[in-house]
Amino acid sequence: MNFVSVGFRTLFYKEMLRFWKVATQTIAAPILTAMLYLLIFGHVLEGRVEVYPGVSYTAFLIPGLVMMSVLQNAFANASSSLIQSKITGNLVFILLPPLSHWEILLAYVSASVVRGLVVGAGVFAITAWFAHLSFAAPLWIIVFAVLGAAILGTLGVIAGIWADKFDQLAAFQNFLIMPATFLAGVFYSIHSLPAFWQAVSHFNPFFYMIDGFRHGFFGQSDISPWTSLAIVSAFFAVLAAVAINLLRHGYKLRH
User: Fold this and answer.
1) Each residue of 80-113: pLDDT tens digit?
2) Distance, CA of 221 to CA of 217 (rounded, Å)
3) What's this model's pTM, rounded to 2 decimal places?
4) N or C: which end of the chain has fewer CB within 10 A?
5) What CA–CA distance (Å, rounded) separates 159 from 170?
6) For 12-15, which contacts have Cβ atoms below 8 Å and span 24 or more sequence positions?
7) Using CA of residue 39, residue 54, residue 141, residue 187, what is the dihedral sign?
């Protein structure tokens, strides 16, 4: 299977160009939002909360905000592109060319990963000035950032295929993506929660993405990064299989 065909490169370029043309909305706005979160939560809780020994709350918060931005923007990229194509009727120009299902999925997910990482890098560049951050295990940072963005890009493809209008897509994001992200330990360690909610948090795959990513900075985490990697990888495999199956059967794509 040729993953670098002209069709794949063209679709990937189209997706890259789509979000880059409106960079103020797709890149600058999420960076500003993360900055506001840092200023508010960092100012209120700095000096009152110490999650890891020797790590200030602001330093603890920054990797969580970076990863949250990566995940949310990777999802938004693929999902918004597909729903726009369905509503405007130009999806046919993606389905007619001799592109395999894997090439379509890979193009959308790859562009989503790029957007997620660009936004994440921007958030880090702005927020890193507010606290001293170490890089205990840089490889874990890269692995979880890329894998997390790929997962949310794949989930964005699934949501974009499922949704028929922007209202449905907004519901998917507001009732699934946002709660799962905010309850994944962005602003706190799950060890600060009661036992019941700690157990519930372990069923949230977003928790493992953020916890593994944060481990790369501090060498400390709530769960072993190897455990997080195994769970996140399995989750990615399941989502990729679902997305490919939807594309293969043309679910809500071919009428």
Assistant:
1) 999 999 888 888 888 888 888 999 999 999 999 9
2) 10
3) 0.92
4) C
5) 10
6) 12/106, 12/107, 12/110, 12/111, 15/77, 15/81, 15/107, 15/108, 15/110, 15/111, 15/112
7) negative
